[in-house]
């Protein structure tokens, strides 16, 4: 019987129990918290698609942003198209100054893709708030070509 208590009986190699690095399965990635612009894009999508009421964003907006949402939301501009629920495809942000993020997102609903831009500002309490929202992606009529 072995006198070494760190190895099971019959084990001959000299490695200790923690010398083998743990292996991750392919599907497991470390959890990264969402960035502020990604979090806001999801919330804005929920309001502008009619899934949530406008007042859901009351504490998360400043300045004219709430008025912009209140004006846009009743028409549900990002509402479901042909029964498909809108989803956030991409969201990117840039930080032009400290405490400011300007972001854009593309939203897909069925075969239609819409654009959304918004600005976030960080207050003295370190909380991010939406300061402006704009929607684009309206289909433009094709210009007549030369004949």
Textual characterization of the structure:
This protein is α+β, with helices and mostly antiparallel strands and 147 residues long. The model is unreliable at 137-143 (pLDDT under 50). It has helices at 36-48, 65-72; strands spanning 87-97, 100-109, 112-122, 128-136. The longest helix is centred in the first third of the chain and has 13 residues, at 36-48. It has a 4-stranded antiparallel beta sheet with strand order 1-2-3-4. It is elongated.
Radius of gyration: 25 Å
Number of helices: 2
The count of β-strands is 4
- In angstroms, what separates the terminal alpha carbons? 96 Å
Q: Can you list the strand order of the major beta sheet?
A: 1-2-3-4
- Please state the overall shape, judged from the principal axes of the Cα atoms: elongated
What's the helical proportion of residues? 10-25%
Strand content: 25-35%
Structural class of the secondary structure composition? alpha+beta
Mean pLDDT: 81
Are there runs of 5+ residues with pLDDT below 50, and where?
Answer: 137-143
Order of helices and strands: HHEEEE
Largest pleated sheet? 4 strands, antiparallel
Which structural traits does this protein have?
alpha+beta, 2 helices
Give a short summary of the structure:
With 147 residues, this protein is α+β, with helices and mostly antiparallel strands. Helix content is 14%, strand content 28%.
Produce the secondary structure layout.
Blueprint: H1 36-48, H2 65-72, E1 87-97, E2 100-109, E3 112-122, E4 128-136
Antiparallel strand pairs: 1-2, 2-3, 3-4
């Amino acid at each position: 019987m072995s006198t070494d208590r760190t190895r099971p009986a019959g084990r001959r190699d000299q490695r200790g129990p923690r010398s083998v690095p743990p292996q991750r399965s392919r599907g497991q990635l470390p959890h990264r918290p969402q960035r502020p612009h990604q979090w806001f894009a999801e919330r804005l999508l929920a309001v502008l698609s009619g899934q949530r009421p406008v007042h859901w964003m009351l504490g998360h907006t400043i300045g004219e942003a709430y008025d912009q949402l209140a004006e846009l939301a009743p028409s549900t501009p990002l509402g479901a198209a042909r029964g498909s629920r809108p989803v956030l495809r991409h969201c990117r942000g840039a930080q032009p100054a400290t405490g400011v993020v300007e972001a854009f997102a593309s939203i897909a609903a069925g075969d239609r893709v819409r654009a959304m831009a918004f600005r976030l500002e960080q207050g003295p309490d370190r909380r991010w708030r939406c300061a402006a929202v704009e929607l684009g992606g309206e289909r433009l009529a094709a210009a007549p070509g030369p004949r």
